[in-house]
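Researcher: Please translate sequence to structure tokens.
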Amino acid sequence: MRILSLSDTIVSLIYSPLIRSRHEGVDIIIGCGDLPYYYLEYVFTSLDAPLYYVRGNHDKVLEHSSAGQRVGPHGGIDLHCRTCSYKGLLLAGIEGSLRYRPGPYQYTQAEMWWYVLGLIPGLLRNRLAYGRYLDVFITHAPPAGVHDADDLPHRGIKAFRWLVNVFQPSLHIHGHIHIYFPGAEMETRVGATRVINSYAWREVTIDV
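Model: Translation complete:
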């Protein structure tokens, strides 16, 4: 299954008619936060593939545009604190980053632990039904110690790292960490899990 993941910045070649020729055949769109809702709508309607997303710390509670008001991308599926399956691909997600100022979609490490622990019943049901816990873990912030930074806004989430270590999804796709220089690490393996920074966009393939 081909996954197109997006986060943090609009890409002109994606937000154009060229998207169809560049990414034809993509099976699922993953939004990792900090992107306009209209942009995500354009991508998944252009590619005729479903959109699953989490919000980032810069996402708006209410977005105004020429097409009207939005509280999320119309037709997309909000994965925050949810587990679900798409054609056998097991998904789960958590939005936001660490709290560093007043505003929405920011949480403490303790709150992130609460959200992660809330996913466990769904992961256990996956194990009973499918023989595995999770295929793709989708977040805005990175896990602690992987692709993160020392400043508070960009510190990784300890609970995410624990989930990766214990439940070993095939992929953990995140955003939030901007890449400014060539050669920056975009993918790291943690045990059985490929942790991927989705800044701008990434296309990956996973066997279901």
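Researcher: Any highlights?
Model: The radius of gyration is 16 Å.
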